[in-house]
């Protein structure tokens, strides 16, 4: 390694004879080489770099244009979705209102029909009670009448004799005759 370094150092001590030779000043040669390379790059690479930048610019512009179109489409779809949402919300509100109205109407119908059924049942109950009362009253009347008739027949049989019996029949026939005339 020391030999390689010594050879570079020894190159730096060569005297220049005014003709062609190596410039061993590293800073000066690097600047010259760098400026030559940059000059060549700028001269020849200017067109390539310009084309690359133009292509990149076109791609960016196309991407922006596509993004704007997509944004416009997205905004349009968003507005359509909002419109549909408002319509659906209005329909839902209408269904809700109609549902509540329908529920209230059904509730009132149920209450009315139940009330009507209860009134009919009350009427049937009252009619049944009246019928049973009349039947009981008729049965009591029949028994009272039978007992009164038996008592009257018993009294008549014990009190009436043939002569009294005939007088009563004649009196009744006379009253019937007076009514008919």
Content-based structural category: mainly alpha
Poorly predicted regions are 1-17
Number of strands: 0
Strand coverage percent: under 5%
Description of the molecule:
The chain has 181 residues and is mainly alpha-helical. It has a domain at 31-136. 90% of the residues lie in helices and 0% in strands. The chain has helices at residues 2-11, 26-159, 162-180. The chain starts with a helix and ends with a helix.
Layout of secondary structure:
Blueprint: H1 2-11, H2 26-159, H3 162-180
Give a concise summary.
With 181 residues, the chain is mainly α. The chain is built from three helices and no strands. It has helices at residues 2-11, 26-159, 162-180.
Q: Keyphrases for this structure?
A:
3 helices, rod-shaped, mainly alpha, 181 residues, disordered N terminus
């Amino acid at each position: 390694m020391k030999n390689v370094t010594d050879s570079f150092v020894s190159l730096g001590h060569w005297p220049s004879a005014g003709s062609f030779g190596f410039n061993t000043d590293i800073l000066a040669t690097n600047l010259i080489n760098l400026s030559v390379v940059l000059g060549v790059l700028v001269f020849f690479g200017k067109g390539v770099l310009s084309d690359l930048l133009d292509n990149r610019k076109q791609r960016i512009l196309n991407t922006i244009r596509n993004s704007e179109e997509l944004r416009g489409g997205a905004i349009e779809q968003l507005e359509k979705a909002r419109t549909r949402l408002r319509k659906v919300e209005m329909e839902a509100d209408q269904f809700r209102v109609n549902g509540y109205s329908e529920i209230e109407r059904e509730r009132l119908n149920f209450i009315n029909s139940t009330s009507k059924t209860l009134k009919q049942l009350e009427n049937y109950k009252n009619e049944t009670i009246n019928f049973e009362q009349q039947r009981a009253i008729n049965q009591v009347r029949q028994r009272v009448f039978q007992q009164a008739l038996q008592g009257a027949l018993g009294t008549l049989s014990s009190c009436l004799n043939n002569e009294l019996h005939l007088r009563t029949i004649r009196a009744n026939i006379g009253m019937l005759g007076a009514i008919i005339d």
